[in-house]
Amino acid sequence: MSNVITFRPARRRSRAQNLRALMAGLAQGRRAQGDVYWLKENAEILSMLTATKAAMSAGDLAPYADFYDTLEDKLHFFPQYYRFFLSICLDLEDLGMDGHKGKALCQWVADSGLVKAELSDLQRAEAYRLLARRGVCDPRAAEAVKGRLRRFAERAGTFALPNKKAAYELTHIVFYLSDYGKQDAQLSAGILTSLHFAGVLAYLDQNHDLLAEVCTALQLTGNTPSPIWMQAVADAHALILPVSGVPEYPHQDAFHSYLVTGWAQAVQGYTSFEAQVPDGSLYFESKVPQAGALRSLSQCLYDLGPQRSESWPAMRAQVLPWLDRQSQHVLEQAEASTPHFAAFFESFARANNDHVAKAG
User: Fold this and answer.
1) 8, 199, 254, 316: most buried by Cβ count inside 10 Å?
2) Which domain of life is it from (predicted)?
């Protein structure tokens, strides 16, 4: 007679349980609390949870209790990080943390003139949005900043050229203008074109992190992201896994990509954050293939020199045979993803730039 041993598979956590484990891992098991990377990552996840109106209990927020209790001291000693501190504080309170420090901290920031120390309009816009959440923002100053940001975002040609910094600034401008989907951002046709150009570039580069932000920016403003882009984002999210342990390069793992691809899914109403989150030290491992077409397409156009044309219909037959099969597929999908592709290519080709330079 033999003994039969039955192994019961571990019960999978629900999405809500996974989010709780993710928050606990970020708050207590990944970096030293208060480290600037800790501030950035925890501000990001709490902001996402607030924007998606996630239901949180007091127990879910317990890993942040000690940090919340000492926020005043931290802000007063490290005022250079005031946007992180305000963001974390306001999101914790809006998610259900027992406390009402936010307004006093916002008032202290306003009275201290910390917004005036910002060099960037984008950072000023973020600061004014935070202060406005507790009613201590100067609306005239905030509107002036928004006006300048709109003018920057309306120059679509900026976003038809590889410039990740500008592209991420564009998505965040839209986040702030829409207050993360809470109000009508009143986007002009020019800003929408800019978002489509940024999305095409992100897709060509297979930069799913940026592509997810573009999709979210479109969705939060009442626009429908390309199904081709959203499928790429969904595929990427499924291939980024929370893993137990310490990464070789702790500041360069795939946490941000995991967060924004999951956020893009959640905003669309799709499932996200279902990968099982281990206890203890946490990092994020990406198995997403890196097989974009942007570099080879750019090299092809550069090598064509004076034969380069801004007309995509004229250039298509010359460009595609030059690329390998994978790059061809990515380019064809990018072309099919948006009706703005031909307009994007007019700027991307840079066919007339030398004439402008010579004329000057």
Assistant:
1) 199
2) Bacteria
